[in-house]
Amino acid sequence: MTLRYLVLFDIDGTLLWPDRAGRDSMRAALERVYGTAGPIDSFPFAGRTDSAIVRDLMAAAGIAEDIVQARFDELAATLEDEMHTRLADGRHNIRACPGALALVEALDARDDVLLGLLTGNLEPTARIKLAAAGYDPDMFRVGAFGGESPVRADLVPLAVERARALTGVDFRGKQIVVIGDTPEDVRCGEALGVQTVAVLTGWNSREELEAASPDVIFDDLTDTGAVIAAALASV
Fold first, then answer.
1. Would you say the pTM of this structure is higher than 0.90?
2. DSSP string, 3-62
3. pLDDT (tens digit, 9 = 90+) per residue, 162-191?
4. Is 70 exposed, middle or buried (0-12, 13-18, 19+ CB in 10 A)?
5. With the C-alpha atoms ordered 204, 206, 208, 209, is the resulting torsion angle positive or negative?
6. Residue 235 pLDDT > 80, yes or no?
7. What is the C-alpha to C-alpha distance for residues 177 and 117, in angstroms, rounded to an integer?
8. Angle at the Cα of 175 (from 203 to 134), degrees rounded to 5?
């Protein structure tokens, strides 16, 4: 069967619950690299990229942007190290969201679907979280990540181009499916006319997600058949 669909998953709140692993690791990494985590306790992470989170937290703490950029690679390596350590010490219980593992496995078994990631996480920490939640990160053959742009909408065309380079398929419009739990996940592919599946396993309300106008909203991903039918309905 010919590839027809590129299905891009958000991670936190969609595929898994991170149990503060990302936020607490970010706090420790920021303090180690920049000497402060800024106003992290009151800062919203959902729907944002890690590069934007770091930029805005450090701006609020008065750290010059050139210093932030110069040490960002160090921050990324420290964040990865911090998350490895915290999970090895059992400080966080990262769990798959309801139905998400079964959905990913069902989609991966299809010959017409290419799986990918569309996440605000940096790639190394994304893979750490996925493995901790029971996923095989290699099932997601393409992706775009939070260290590549502070603007989430920039990540969609990047993932699509990587899918084209890998497979030779020029995925367009509703062939591209974005599955996520935030309004930003829903809106990020608007310019490409993608199919959007919103799920209420994250931290946004139904009303907030409805205001972003997804194609469909699910309470969770437990009804594998219904989610696949909705995701792949428009081609």
1. yes
2. --EEEEE--BTTTEE-TTHHHHHHHHHHHHHHS---SGGG---TT--HHHHHHHHHHHTT
3. 999 999 999 999 999 999 999 999 999 999
4. exposed
5. positive
6. no
7. 11
8. 45
